[in-house]
Amino acid sequence: MTSTRKKIRPQPKPPTPLKAARLLRGYDLEQVAGWVGASVASLGRYEAGAFPRDLAVAKRLVELYETPLEDLWPALKDDEAA
Known about the structure:
By secondary structure, this protein is mainly α. 57% of the residues lie in helices and 0% in strands.
C-alpha cells in the first residue's frame, strides 16, 4: 500500500544580508577573500552571522558592498537598541 501523503521538504533559509550583498553583485567567496584580505573560511563565518575580529576587514567589506555596516550585520542594530 502506498501513501498518498506528500513529503514535506524543509524550506531553505534566506541568505544573510552579507551573503545577499555578495550574491547580488555576482561575486564568489574566493574573489571577496582576495579583495578584503580574509580567508574563505572566515568569510563563511561572517556570512553565517559572525562579526569580523579585524575591523579593517569589516571596513573593506562595507566599502566593497557599498552598504552600511548595520545593514550587513543586523545584530549590531539590536545591540545598540539594548
